[in-house]
Amino acid sequence: MNLIRPLTTFSLLALLLPLSMEATYAEESEVTVTLVRLGGKFSPSPLVVPVGQKIRLVVDNQDNDAMEFESASLFWEIVIPPHHKTPIHLTPLTAGNYDYFNDDNHQEKGIITATASAK
User: Fold this and answer.
1) Whole-structure pTM over 0.85, yes or no?
2) For residue 59, what is the domain's CATH number?
């Protein structure tokens, strides 16, 4: 009988914890920016983002072919189908330049610039 109460309390906490974590994440500010690929080129170039904030980078591939979107400096790689928008969540960046490119065509490349003056 004495074991039931702690188990019930633990079960309730286990059910409520994901809800509180989701609310905390939603409260943190996240900046959404869009990078468009059209005609084998990315725009805007460079893509300027604020330092110290979470970034939701939406990559909009408007071309007729898929691309392997990659950044060695940000440690990610993702295949984006043609005519598809894909969000990529970035942790807060420090000031500097971060390269990205299409691994299927290395001439398609660009820079993300994290700066304190970006709003």
Assistant:
1) no
2) 2.60.40.420
CA-to-CA dists, residue 106 to 28, 39, 40, angstroms: 35, 14, 10
Angle 46-35-37 (CA atoms, 0-180°, nearest 5)? 100
Both tokens of 108, joined, read 């398609």
First to last CA, the chain: 58
At 23, the pLDDT band (50, 70, 90 cuts) reads very low
Q: Is residue 16 part of a domain?
A: no
Domain span at residue 94 reads: 29-115
Q: Evaluate whether residue 7 is within a structural domain.
A: no
What are the start-end ranges of the E strands in 1-119?
A: 30-38, 41-43, 47-50, 54-61, 67-71, 76-80, 84-90, 96-102, 105-115
